[in-house]
TrEMBL record:
One MF annotation (Gene Ontology) recorded for this entry: dipeptidase activity
Keyword Nucleotide-binding set for record: no
Lineage: Bacteria, Pseudomonadati, Pseudomonadota, Gammaproteobacteria, Cellvibrionales
InterPro entries: Bact_exopeptidase_dim_dom, M20A_pepV-rel, Peptidase_M20, Peptidase_M20_dimer, Peptidase_M20A
Protein name in UniProt: Dipeptidase
Family membership noted in the UniProt record: Belongs to the peptidase M20A family.
Amino acid sequence: MKIRSLLNRVAAVLLCAPVLAAADVSPVAQNTADYAVETYEAAMTDTLAELVHYKTFAREDLPLEKNPEFTGFKEALRDKAIELGLEYEDHGHVVIVALGDAEDKLGIVTHGDVQPADPSKWQKSPFELDGDSEPGKLIARGSEDDKGPIATALYAMKAIDDKGVPLKRRIELIVYLAEESDWGPLREFLKSYPIPAYNITIDANYPVVTAEKGWSEVRVTAADSPVGSDGEPYLSEFRGGYFRSQVPDEARATVANITPALEKAIRARAAQHGDVRYEFAARNDGSLAVTARGKATHSSEPQHGVNAIAFLANALAVHRWPANAAGTTARYLNDLVGTGILAEQFGDIAYKDDFMGPMTSTVTMVKAGDNALTSYLNLRRPTGKSAGRLDREIRAALAQWQRDNEIELAQVEVDLGTPYRVEDAMHVAPLLQVFRHFSGIEDAGPVAIGGSTNAKLLPHAVSFGPSMPGKAYTGHSEHEFLTVEQFRLNLQMYTAMMIEIGNL
């Protein structure tokens, strides 16, 4: 036992020493990462197939604790953890899978809930892992966000355990089950739980994310009113979007009392939108249905999508619509939101930060309520402007627009999230080292993202993958996937990351 203890101490020293070398990892980290891929790549894919089967999205009619999909997901995770020789703890909205018994801890933070998916837009069920439709891709809701990373972390931990790698820190995979809908239960959990000193979320991008924009939203509600009594054209319908953190790929409007000249003008303007597919359908009541189809993506990266709502409103901008709910909404979107993503039309609200980049803006939904329509404008705000100032500027722009158009909005709501930045986390340098070593990108440095992860709730937390720099994040889209190559690379990097940071 004494000899084994001495060897373990020597190994731990060797693990830490190479961390200071440029673009290199310790031999133990390299060897264990290679072993993980050679031994567990197929099992990791099988586990992902099992996890994506569960429809773990929030439902208004059924609380999480009574939802059989979440119950089944937790049971599957528990059974897999036990099978792999790992510890499992169920804390309700949070489950923890752990390796090691050291007093100091490394938190690997992720989530097991997902956004809804529209089955009509997938080649197979979004809740069935599809590795055949597009060879080289693993397609499913949650494959990238975040069930793929969960499966990766499980087998990284298993490989480390198999090889008997000594760790100074207990590794805790913290899986939250309501990240996409409600952070309240996690905040409550963290009030009493011993939080690890080092925390890494696996819910974003590489190389290392040290700053996240604040998730924010402007909700504008327009009340309905009688229009069209004299036969004038008006919008009897305007709607679109699926959920509030997705650039919408579909929107629909209906023009009542359509005239040939107006239809021609709408079609001509729509034809200028090369990235949008339009469908026109004349109805027996003399109306025209117009459907716009764009490209869905995560609303934190609107540059990778094509916003069907924004472009549909633009196609309708050939006419000054009467100010019922649909007409008011289309006019507001055209005047203040537009088809851009930097809020440059919205009064004085646009700004940018040298590191975090510009505030982005994208309308994600237009949803009908009781005799009203509410539009949801998702902002991702960096540091550089106070919340108070931004709130005043938003409300001033809306007030001026109402005066100019002689329209009174039914309601305006503004929620501004807080940007998050880490300046001095000690594990940033070794994480960059792991990424540089396995990716071959030697000049990789810290980055900022528009996304908002649970890193905001933890001390000195940064994000590490699973999406590569320069690649569109597919989570929240209707074509979510991880490539087989990326899945394999993630397993290598997560295994090495746990060893290197687990021995700081």
